Every structure is written in C-alpha cells, then in structure tokens.
C-alpha cells in the first residue's frame, strides 16, 4: 500500500509554506495553518506573502489541484509538522511561546498513531519538555504517538531545492519515532536521512549556524586587523585559502538574516559559562556593523575637510546578503538608515526591491553617477561590472572590487 498520510503544517512562513507546497506536490493532502487570516487568504488564492523563487507557481498549482489548503485552525491528520518562528525575548532568551501555542492548537486533534514533528529552531531539551506537556494533557496518547525533532536547514533563495535535496537530521523521542519520521520524510526528501535522539538533533541545528557565525566573525575580525595593518584582506584570504586545510569565509558589513545572528543565542543562553567563543563571535559580528558606520563617517569627514562641502554617499545594497530581496535583520539596511537619521546625504540603492516605506530608493547607475563617495555593502552580481569614475572615493566592504583579481 502506498503511504499517503494527511498532513497538517503549523506555520506558513519561510519554512512552513515551501514545505507544505513541496509535500502537496507529491500528491499528499496538506492543510497549512497560520494564525494570520491574511496569510491564509493569500495562500488559498494561490498566492504567497513571502519572496522565494518558484514558490508562487508551486503554491498556485497545488491549491488549484486541491492538495494544498490553508486555514486558521488545524484538522485531524496523520502527520503534524510545527514550523513556527522562535524569536527572542528580553536579553536574547529564546521565546518558544509560538511552538507551545502550536502544540496546544493541535492537541485536540491528535489521535493514536499520529506523527508530530517539530522543525522550528528550539533550545536543547525542548522537544522532551513539549512531549511531557502533551502527555500530561492527553495521557491516553503516552507511547501511542510518534514525536521527533527534524530541523530545517535550507538557504533562503534556494529553499525549494534544498528542502528536497539536503540531508536531514531526525531526532526521535524513541527509536520508533525516529523510524516513523524517516518514513515520512522519505516521501519528499531525496537527501539522506540521519536518525538520532531529540537533543542531538536540536543541538545540531544550533551548532550549524553557530559554526558559520564563528567563522564569519573570524573573517570580520581579520578585515578590521588588516585595515589597521594596511593589508588587502581579500588578497590575504585568497592566499591563505590556498592552504589545503584553510577555508576562511568572507568579511562583510555584519551578519544578517533570521538564523545565523539568532541561533547562537540559543546555545549561549542555555550554556552561558561554556559558550565563550560563540558569544564572542556574536559580539565581533555586531561590532563589525558599528565599525563600518564609523569608517564611513571618517571618510565623510576627510571629504569635508578637503572639499569644504557635504558629500553625497551612495549606499550600494541593502539586503542581508547578495542577490536576494530579503531585508530581515540586514546590517546594510541598518547602516544606511542610521546614516540617514544622522543627516548625511545618502542615496540608498537596492536593485532587488521596488520601494521601501522609510527610505527612498535610487537607481544604482544614477547613484554611482551622482555620489561623491560610493560604499559597497552587498556583493550583488548587478554591481560587479559597474564602471566607477576613478576620481570618486569607493569604500568596498564586501569585496566587489576584487572581482577582477587574477585568480591564477
Ligand atoms: N555572510 C558573511 N560572510 C560569509 C557568508 C555569509 O558575512 O562568508 C553573511 C551574509 O552576508 C548574511 C549572513 O552572513 O548577512 C548569513 O547568510 P548565510 O548565507 O550564511 O545564511 P542564511 O542566514 O541565509 O541561512 C543560514 C544557513 N545556515 C548555514 O549555512 C549553516 C541555512 O542553511 C539555514 O537553514 C538557515 O541559516 C536557517 O534557517 O537556519
């Protein structure tokens, strides 16, 4: 018999909606649940409220075929996936209230034999705690439902491809749960499925992003050291990376997005005494953004002393990383906004976005023409071949000018 479970996905955000659409595309009936009625309405019209390549077409197709439907309430199903956000509370403490509330919402619909999977990023030990709550409220389900933690690990901009092709780590509350969750994920994941326990799977997600944060912090720290030492950090990294066991990442204006700057705090807040390096990396990456602001201001002052007038500054790129239209926790946006607030004459450039509420956007070619100081903050492909007047001051925080470097 072909295994075709009915699926409920709690949360129709950056992870829940693409996951729902992908599962539905395998001919599985999916109900996506979101507390926001506007999101539910949008999805039921075959549209999307987030930006992600190819997602709208997939949602539209599956809504039309009747495989995907959104609602504000769950329904009975065989599999429940929880993919709601976990933001911070005060002092960078993870706020798992959305996950708790999703568990509470599905409680009345659970039946013997159901599989419940949490995909949201959560502190170590949370799956076990939530299972306890679940079994306290529905004690007849004890040992009769399957519970697992399976973290998402997809890259914004490549979400649909990565949901299907990345390997997955699946931590079950017990071996039966791990096996059941593996059987389910095998329906739509082509990558390998690795079984473990819940705590290891929870830590695995946090560690992946903390690892990247620490490595980016290393590159950012190097860039500040090199600035003082008058060494081209890009050339330095390229040469150091010729070593077979060295792979330094790229410095930038700081770390943005909703994951890498957030997840390390889930480790720090649970293991305050031990997570020294992870905490320091967070600080270095945050300090880098401030350092960039100060660098730009230094150059403005130099210009003013020399030219006896206020310069026009082009801030090139506002998104949190190259070639996407995602502004979440973007350091480039923060820098630009801060400079504007302080009264500097800023031309804000972001070719991937049509318009912004608080910031007027300028075409990137016009900005290059009009500005006295050009600040590259995001390494968009569109900026790579721009011809900049050699009289103008260019500050390159993302290595765009290094593009033509001889790679031999
Ligand atoms: N960045 C640098 N230098 C680099 C690489 C990145 O400064 O060499 C900056 C980017 O500009 C950006 C930030 O880091 O501001 C994060 O970008 P990213 O591309 O590294 O990662 P995200 O946040 O888009 O997605 C990450 C991914 N995690 C890892 O690569 C370990 C993704 O696989 C996760 O699923 C995602 O977080 C998540 O949802 O947790």
Map the helices and strands:
Layout: E1 7-10, H1 16-24, E2 30-33, H2 37-44, H3 55-65, E3 68-71, E4 79-82, H4 97-106, E5 115-118, H5 126-137, E6 146-149, H6 159-165, E7 168-172, H7 175-185, E8 193-197, H8 198-229, H9 233-240, H10 263-270, H11 276-307, E9 312-316, H12 331-341, E10 345-349, H13 364-370, E11 373-376, E12 393-396
Parallel strand pairs: 1-2, 1-4, 2-3, 4-5, 5-6, 7-8, 9-10, 9-11, 11-12
Antiparallel strand pairs: 6-7
The structure holds ligand SAJ.
Residues 152-156, 208-209, 212, 216, 249-250, 252, 255-257, 259-260, 320-321 line the site of ligand SAJ.
Structural write-up:
With 408 residues, the protein is α/β, with parallel strands linked by helices. The chain is 41% helix and 13% strand. It contains 13 helices and 12 strands. The strands form 2 sheets. Strands 3-2-1-4-5-6-7-8 form an 8-stranded mixed β-sheet, with helices on both faces. It has a 4-stranded parallel β-sheet with strand order 10-9-11-12, with helices on both faces. Strand 5, helix 5 and strand 6 form a beta-alpha-beta unit. The longest helix has 32 residues. The site of ligand SAJ has 19 residues, from helix 8.
